[in-house]
Each structure stands twice: as structure tokens, then as C-alpha cells.
């Protein structure tokens, strides 16, 4: 399966949560540009990203400062290869899940490569420090929408929050370890399935409150340009072109829910059909799209490490 050049393409960039040993290893020496991306990620973070992705250990790879840099490097390289091999494609929009939002802004020309990794390095270190202080966690809950899960948590008096509204059949909740333990029991009691993602904190919850101002202060010194095509922001589920509002939304991103359902509805409700191209080490955003009534399998592809694309059922 390949991209139809007559239809506009919406780029979907992965976030953290699904790290595997060996991810991105086949991208290291693909071209001079992919080597430059790996080098930039390693130089700015001070980490040997190649070695950590190739060998782990997993206990290190799942740590936020490593995982976010690695995911961003892989996203950036896959996008570069895809763009080089599909020069006739017209991009009509992009959306990145959680940390993937920064990859989307890079793809749209709003951030330079160096600034992309500078921001990710600062953000991931900040989030790691906050997670050590707050001791929070997250759970992926399948089989319910935001309203239903919110009502269940309120009924049980559980102080967990909706971190990601992924679809009408999947939510992610975050909170303290006690709140997540109680939430897990309530969810199981309601006959819903839950799993723990490979993250080390309660992202997109009030446990990250003290990180918002430092994020604002750092982003104030980053050159953000208006994106060349629509980038839907996680905080609102809507496109934004004003650099100042982009900075503020990226800061609030630490504590606000990821509005993925609203973002996908925005693209699916367009009068002219779009094609989705997932940019990720392993396809999972496409699978979420199957929860949307207006989506069909023919509307999406996954960008592979050789620059080609494939359909995902």
C-alpha cells in the first residue's frame, strides 16, 4: 500500500510509552541526514542514544530523559526518510501524541532540529525530576470513553485524572500510586481492561503543576515560527499558528489532558478525505483510529524504517 498523492496527508507522531530494545537501530546509517539527527540528539542530551536504544538496559531506556530523546530522534529520522521518498505528497496537517507534539512542530518547520532536541532534553529532565518528587503513575483503560471513566472515578471518590483522551474506547489516567491502585480495582470491577504503560510518572496531571512555569521560562528563549501546515495541539485539539500561544499551550501540556479524540475528529470531519501517515517505531496510533466511526483502514499507512509505507489492519 502507498500514499495517494492526490489526497492530503495528515502526519501522526508517536509519543513515549512503548520502548523496545533495538528500536531505531536500522536508521543509524541510512543516510548522512539520519546520522546528523542521531548525533544532534546525543550531543545535546549528553547521552549515547544509539547504544541505549540498541542494548538498553530496559530499566534505563524507559527513563523519561532517555525515552523522550530516543522517540523524538526516531520520529525525526522516519519523517526525514518519508519526506525524501514521497516528494510529491502534500501535508495538510499533523498531530503528535504527548511528546510527539514537538516532532509535529519540527515537521511543520516551526522548530529547528537543534531547538527540538534542546526543548526535549529540558522537558524530559524536568518531568523526570517531578516524577521522582510526586511518585505518580499511569494506567491505560480500554473499553470506555472520557465521560464514562470520569463518572466512574467520581463515583468511587478516586482522585485520578484523565491524562489522555485517546478515543471513545480508550483512556489513560494518571495520579498518585494510591489513586492508581484504587482506580485499577474500580476499573476491573467495572469489567474494563487496564494495562500499565512504560512511563515513570503521572504525565498530564496536576502532579506536574510545578513544572509549568519552568517550561514557560525555557520556551520563552526558543525561536518558534508559525507552522507551515496545521498542527493540532494536545491541550485544545485545535490548530494554532501564533508562536506565543504555542509556547503557552506547550507549557500547559504538562498538566492538561491530551485531546486526541478531538484532534482525530477534527481531521475526520474535514469535507475532503485525508490520509493518515503514522510516524513511529511501531504502529499504534493507527490502531486507535479504528475506534472512530468515520475511519477505514484504507485511510492510513505506517511509515517504515526504509522510507516506504505499509497499511495496518
Short description:
It contains twelve helices and ten strands. The strands form two sheets. A six-stranded mixed beta sheet has the order 7-2-1-8-9-10, with helices on one face. Strand 8, helix 12 and strand 9 form a beta-alpha-beta unit.
- Overall average pLDDT: 92
The secondary structure category is: alpha/beta
Poorly predicted sequence stretches spanning 5 or more consecutive residues: none
Order of helices and strands: EHHHHEHHEHEEHEHEHHEHEE
Number of helices: 12
N-to-C CA distance: 12 Å
Q: What is the helix fraction of residues, given as a range?
A: 40-55%
Strand count, sense and barrel status of the largest sheet are: 6 strands, mixed
- In what range is the share of β-strand residues? 15-25%
- Extended strand count: 10
Q: Strand order across the biggest sheet?
A: 7-2-1-8-9-10
The outline comes out as: globular
* CA-based gyration radius: 18 Å
Oligomer: single chain
InterPro entries: Ac_transferase_dom_sf, Acyl_transferase_dom, Acyl_Trfase/lysoPLipase, Mal-CoA-ACP_Trans/PKS_FabD, Malonyl_transacylase_ACP-bd
Protein name: [acyl-carrier-protein] S-malonyltransferase
Domain Malonyl-CoA:ACP transacylase (MAT): 12-308
Catalytic activity: holo-[ACP] + malonyl-CoA = malonyl-[ACP] + CoA
Amino acid at each position: 500500500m502507498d500514499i495517494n498523492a492526490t489526497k492530503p496527508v495528515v502526519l501522526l507522531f508517536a509519543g513515549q510509552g512503548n520502548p523496545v530494545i533495538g528500536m531505531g537501530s536500522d536508521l543509524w546509517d541510512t543516510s548522512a541526514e539520519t546520522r546528523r539527527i542521531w548525533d544532534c540528539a546525543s550531543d545535546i542530551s549528553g547521552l549515547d542514544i544509539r547504544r541505549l536504544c540498541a542494548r538498553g538496559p530496559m530499566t534505563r531506556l524507559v527513563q523519561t530523559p532517555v525515552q523522550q530523546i530516543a522517540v523524538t530522534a526516531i520520529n525525526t529520522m522516519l519523517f526525514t526518510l518519508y519526506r525524501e521518498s514521497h516528494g510529491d505528497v502534500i501535508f495538510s496537517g499533523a498531530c503528535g501524541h504527548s511528546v510527539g507534539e514537538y516532532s509535529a512542530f519540527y515537521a511543520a518547520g516551526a522548530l529547528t532540529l537543534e531547538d527540538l532536541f534542546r526543548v526535549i532534553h529540558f522537558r524530559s529532565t524536568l518531568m523526570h525530576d517531578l516524577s521522582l518528587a510526586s511518585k505518580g503513575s499511569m494506567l491505560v483503560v480500554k473499553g470506555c470513553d472520557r465521560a464514562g471513566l470520569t463518572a466512574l472515578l467520581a463515583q468511587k471518590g478516586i482522585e485520578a485524572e484523565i491524562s489522555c483522551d485517546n478515543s471513545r474506547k480508550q483512556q489513560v489516567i494518571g495520579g498518585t500510586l494510591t489513586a492508581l491502585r484504587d482506580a485499577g480495582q474500580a476499573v476491573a470491577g467495572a469489567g474494563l481492561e487496564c494495562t500499565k504503560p512504560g512511563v515513570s510518572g503521572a504525565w498530564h496531571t496536576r502532579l506536574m503543576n510545578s513544572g509549568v512555569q519552568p517550561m514557560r521560562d525555557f520556551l520563552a528563549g526558543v525561536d518558534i515560527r508559525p507552522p507551515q501546515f496545521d498542527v493540532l495541539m494536545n491541550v485544545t485539539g485545535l490548530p494554532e499558528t501564533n508562536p506565543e500561544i504555542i509556547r503557552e499551550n506547550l507549557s500547559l501540556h504538562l498538566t492538561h489532558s491530551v485531546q486526541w479524540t478531538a484532534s482525530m475528529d477534527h481531521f475526520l470531519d474535514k469535507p475532503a478525505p485525508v490520509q493518515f501517515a503514522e510516524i513511529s517505531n511501531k504502529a499504534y496510533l493507527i490502531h486507535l483510529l479504528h475506534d472512530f466511526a468515520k475511519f477505514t483502514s484504507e485511510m492510513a499507512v505506517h511509515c517504515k524504517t526504509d522510507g516506504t509505507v505499509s497499511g495496518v489492519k
